Each structure stands twice: as C-alpha cells, then as structure tokens.
C-alpha cells in the first residue's frame, strides 16, 4: 500500500514538473512572438476598421502579437509621434505606420528604424528612407480614376470643385495631383477650385456648402477620403443639388453607399483596406523571418463603383468589405 501511495505521489510530482516545464515553454514562446505596433491616422472609420480586420487575420495566421493605435483627429501628428515613442519603449519589432504628416512624422520614424525596428508604411507615406515596404493605393492612379469618373458626364462645360483634406497628408495630395493632371487635358474644364478642410464629416460638409454657394457654376465635385466624402454628400443633400452636380468620392461605408443609391454621390473610388492590413502584417512576418527580397512597393488597387455597376457581385464584395458596426 505504501508503495502504491509513493508511486502515485511520484507520478503527480512528475506530472507537475512536466506541466510547469510546458507552461514555462509557453511563456517563453509568447515572449518570442514578433511584436507589431500598427499606428495609423484614425481608428473609427469603416476604412480603418477594415484595415484592422485584415491585420488581425494575418496576425492570427502568422502567430504575431499586434496592437492598434491612432489619434482621435487625423491631423494630430504629435500624438502619432508619441505613440511611436511608446512603441519604441515597449520594444516592438515592427511598426506598421500610416502617416498623418509626410514630413512631421519623419524624424520619429527614423529614430525607430535606428533602434533596429522594421518600418512598414500602409496607406499614407512618410518622408523616410528607412521604410522597408510601402503598401497601399497607388494614389496618383487613384486620382486619375477619380478624374475619369468625373469626366463621365455629358456637360459641355465643367467647373470643378475639389474638397481635399490636410495639405501635409501625402496620399490626399497625390490623389489631387493625378486628378488635376488628367482633367486639365479636357477642354471642357473651365475652372478648378480647391479647398482643404479638416478630415471630419462636419468640416467637409460646411466647407463644401460654402464653396458651392460661392460659385453656382460648379457642376462637378471630387473628394478624396471617407470623412470628406460623407461631408460632401451631406452638403449636396442639404442644398438639394444631387441632380445638378456630378460627385466623385472615395471609400465606402453604409452611409456613402446609401448616397450612391440615392444620387448625392455618383461614383465611389473604393480602395482595399483589408488587403493593406493583411499584407502589412504578412510583410512584418516575412521581414522578421529574414525574407528581405520582397517588393518595396505594393499596390493594393482601387475600383470605380457607380450606380450602374454597384449591384454586380464583384462591386458588392468591394463595397461591403467594411464592418457595419457603428454605422
């Protein structure tokens, strides 16, 4: 009997030692996971929620720990810089970054790279030579697509209003450049007016209304991100000008798709934010595994969606890739 008890105690002791060893290995494996900080321009829009969904899926697939952060306002580069500093202090391996300000975010990104942190840019570029890979929309080409959609009208004379966001944000400026270079070749274009607003729905709404009321000739309006698109759509509705103005907007959520249906918006230039998030994390995993031969620039593509093609299966997949919660 004593021998049986002694054997049982010994087996339990051995099991406990084994479990402790396994636990220790699990904790060690957890600490050995690649630590990725995704720091972007905003966290609330459907666009960024789709980015996070793609990044989360890739983080699960590649066994990566990832955190998500971004300022409350898309113009707040100082808070973004503080978030990068915190990520540096936390000892992350990779920062996936979307810059509020092309120049004002550059120094802190260079500092992070000098500490050995890998830098991947998604969506909005930063003025740094230390970036391993840039993933996102070809913004010049996206601007060209917006121009093609804007010019798809029978009006004989075009007076164009551009509602753009922060002049220091690289992607908005590239989109406007591609747009201008294209529409300026069309002899129907008589005038182009640009305003820059805060990247909020209400500021874009107010700015668009003021622009339209100050120049009644404007018959085409283009805008370049999700929040300004909503603001322009509301301005068109407020002024009851859906039948008079061709509106080309960017991105998709429940509200903007509804505006496409009801006529306040005539075309949406839809990006692929899910791919930006997924490919950003996949690239982080590859870099940490020593795979350095990948492309330095990855274009995630855009699609023009209009009322004519919005119900086609491919358009539906593109339009409704965002998460509906909160809209």
From TrEMBL:
Keywords: Signal
Intracellular or extracellular location(s): Cell envelope
SUPFAM superfamilies (UniProt xref): Periplasmic binding protein-like I (SSF53822)
Any Gene Ontology CC annotation: cell envelope
A Pfam family per the record: Peripla_BP_4
Domain Periplasmic binding protein: from-to ranges: 36-291
GO molecular function, one term: carbohydrate binding
Gene3D superfamilies: 3.40.50.2300
Residues annotated as signal peptide: 1-28
Domain of life: Bacteria
This protein's record includes keyword Metal-binding: no
Major localisation: other
PANTHER family associated with the record: D-ALLOSE-BINDING PERIPLASMIC PROTEIN-RELATED
Family: Belongs to the bacterial solute-binding protein 2 family.
Protein's UniProt name: Substrate-binding domain-containing protein
